[in-house]
Amino acid sequence: MKNILLILAALVLASCSASDRALSAITQNDGKIGIGTPAPDDLLTVKGTIHAQEVKIDLKGALVPDYVFDVYFGPDPSVDYRRLTLKELAQYLDDHHHLPGVPSANEIDANGLYMSAFSLKLLEKIEELTLYVLEQQQQIDALEKQCENGQ
What we know:
Elements: H1 2-24, E1 26-29, E2 32-35, E3 44-46, H2 67-73, H3 86-96, H4 105-111, H5 115-148
Parallel strand pairs: 2-3
Antiparallel strand pairs: 1-2
């Protein structure tokens, strides 16, 4: 019985010291909270991995890239957007080695990554790719029709 009490006491002490260590990893500085860092540089700074079941990012006022389709299906003079031709895109990739409007690996290393802006930029690229694929399918269909007609 004495051994069981000693083991329980050791477990309680071990868990307390672990929680104390966890609490000491949380810092507050000028209204900013840091987890795993003594010098938070934003409202919440976490040095390490964040595990979450879901993350919601509010994008109120953000420009969702519907303009890609709006310009394609009916030129909208109020939208300042032009999709590159595939030739222009190939030249850009050859020159810069990353997609236009998407930060390079060096830029991400230097400046970090803002998830909301990056997600919207990726959505823009997906919409552009969708249009490129649809246009290529139209070209394939036209070529198949020419072949069927013996031209």
